[in-house]
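Q: Can someone sanity-check these two? First one:
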Amino acid sequence: MGEFTDKVKGAADKVVGSVKEGVGKMTNDRELEVEGKAQQLKGKAEQVKGTVKGKINDL
């Protein structure tokens, strides 16, 4: 995937993860809450990956 694709996918994962975490908290579903937090971390990592790809392409 390219820089832009990684960043978009990362942003989407952060949003979906945030929703899952919120729903997990509201429904007292600890597993869903943890899954949401993990998905948010995955999204952050994808965004960093996209940024790194961009920096490498700038060299």
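And here is the second, same format, sequence then tokens:
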Amino acid sequence: MSDIVVKDSNGTVLADGDSVTTVKDLKVKGTSEMLKRGTLVKNIRLTGRAGEIECNTKKVKGLVLRTEFLKKA
């Protein structure tokens, strides 16, 4: 990877394997699922884009989330 720094909504630097929580309710495109505020997402993966991470939740696999809606747990 390159020198891209990925930060959460509070400015905390994120790394592969971190856990994050959502700061607002998020509708998942293409599904009827909703990630509620405070949902814990474990073991994130950085994508190479500064504003996005990849993760899996209990119901949705291969999810890409914007870091502006997350905070480090």
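A (reply): Looked at the second one. The two ends are 24 Å apart (CA to CA). The chain has a mean pLDDT of 93.
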